[in-house]
Amino acid sequence: MAAEFKSAISLKPMNTFGMDVHAARFAVFVNETQLQQQLEALQNNTDPILILGGGSNILFTRDYPGVVLKDEIGGISIVDDGGDDVLVKAGAGVVWHALVDWCIEHNLGGIENLSLIPGTCGAAPIQNIGAYGVELKDVFHSLKCIQIKDGSKSEIFAEQCAFGYRDSVFKRSMKGKMVITSITLKLSRKHRLNVSYGAITQELQRMGISNPDIRNVSDAVCNIRRSKLPDPAILGNAGSFFKNPEVPGNIHEALKKEFPNMVSYPFGASTFKLAAGWLIEQCGWKGKVVGKTGSHKDQALVLVNYGGATGEEVVHLSDEIRASVRAKFGVEIEPEVNII
Q1: 183 three-state secondary structure
Q2: What Cα–Cα distance (Å) separates residue 258 from each residue in 147, 280, 293, 329, 330?
Q3: Do 113 and 221 meet the contact criterion of CB atoms below 8 Å apart?
Q4: Which residue out of 168, 240, 264, 295 is catalytically annotated?
Q5: Per-position pLDDT tens, the chain of length 340
Q6: Which terminal residue of the chain has fewer beta carbons within 10 Å of its beta carbon, N or C?
Q7: DSSP states of 62-110
Q8: Which long-range contacts (CB under 8 A, 24 or more apart) does 260-267 make?
């Protein structure tokens, strides 16, 4: 069956910023065979190709001039059950939080701290998603993908992914070269809870829970995230817009002397990570509205679309925020969001 593409399709409902842009050509794939047919049809195509998942970590600044392929490969299953350790496979189009819920329902621990992170499973390794002391790399086993150039299938294992803080090989040497079709995670029935990071312990206490399980931890994380982050269905945003910057120990020490209340934590042997939200708030941006966009009132890291904002306006705001942080602290903050 020949691949079919639609023309001039609106991407507004497919990106959480709610940017009203269009794709020159568009198609959905629900399995590997359908994707291979689409890629074969595009072999002589010279236009750019964008793989779109949940659209939760992307900022469109213009209409997309090429082909958008939307990943809707579903399915979650146990592929290897070793007793305590279990390998779980999820289609790249599965909503990430749906996978978290499925794993908790099956008594499989390891990703409960990553509850309510927006997006799909296929995007998770690209970004090496993380929250509350846990990163995807901690449980990642492998992924399957299809090469855009020739439609061939590959399997890539954790050690090949070069995972870093919100980083991976898929943002570097493999960027734009392949399409992730599924991921496999190594989870456990012997739960090792991580409740020491952020406000999880305090939230569990508020919930009246002294002996938490993985469901309790997930609920606590969801409560915290909902209290701080706006719902994209109501207010356009892509979650945290900036990465937390990393600085060497001597820079951290100097900043701490000048700003004793600075929020930071150790990251590696001689590096510290600074809370970008705190830096931005100190520069007076939290809750500030600029035209149709702004920094959210409850979380300075989140840039929002109050309705009708363009991608260029959000980029301009982010540039202004970065410049003010650079001027006040001498620190560079980088966007976490993929700007197109």
Answers
A1: strand
A2: 50, 16, 31, 9, 12
A3: yes
A4: 240
A5: 678 999 999 999 999 999 999 999 999 999 999 999 999 999 988 899 999 999 999 999 999 999 999 999 999 999 999 889 999 999 999 999 999 999 999 999 999 999 999 999 999 999 999 999 899 999 999 999 999 999 999 999 999 999 998 899 999 999 999 999 999 999 999 999 999 876 899 999 999 999 999 999 999 999 999 998 899 989 999 999 999 999 999 999 999 999 999 999 888 788 999 999 999 999 999 999 999 999 999 999 999 999 999 999 999 999 999 999 999 999 999 999 999 9
A6: N
A7: S-EEEEEEEE----EEEEEE-SSEEEEEEETTSBHHHHHHHHHHTT-BS
A8: 267/165
Find the distance separating the first CA and the last CA of the chain, reported in whole Å: 32
Q: Environment class of residue 247 by beta-carbon count within 10 Å: exposed (0-12), middle (13-18) or buried (19+)?
A: buried
Domains annotated on the chain, with CATH: 6-71 (3.30.43.10), 76-188 (3.30.465.10), 236-339 (3.90.78.10)
Residue of 270, 272, 268 lying closest to 247 (CA atoms): 272
Distance, in Å, from the CA atom of 109 to the CA atom of 93, rounded to the nearest integer, reads 21
87 strand-pairing partners: 80, 186
Amino acid making up residue 178: M
Six token digits for residue 181 = 């079709």
The token duo for 156 is 């890539």
- Residues 6+ positions from 35 with CB-CB distance below 8 Å: 29, 69, 73, 146, 179, 181
Q: Of the listed 166, 168, 182, 318, which one is catalytic?
A: 166
Residue 336 annotated in active site: yes
Q: Say whether 200 sits in a helix, a strand or coil.
A: helix
178: β partners: 147
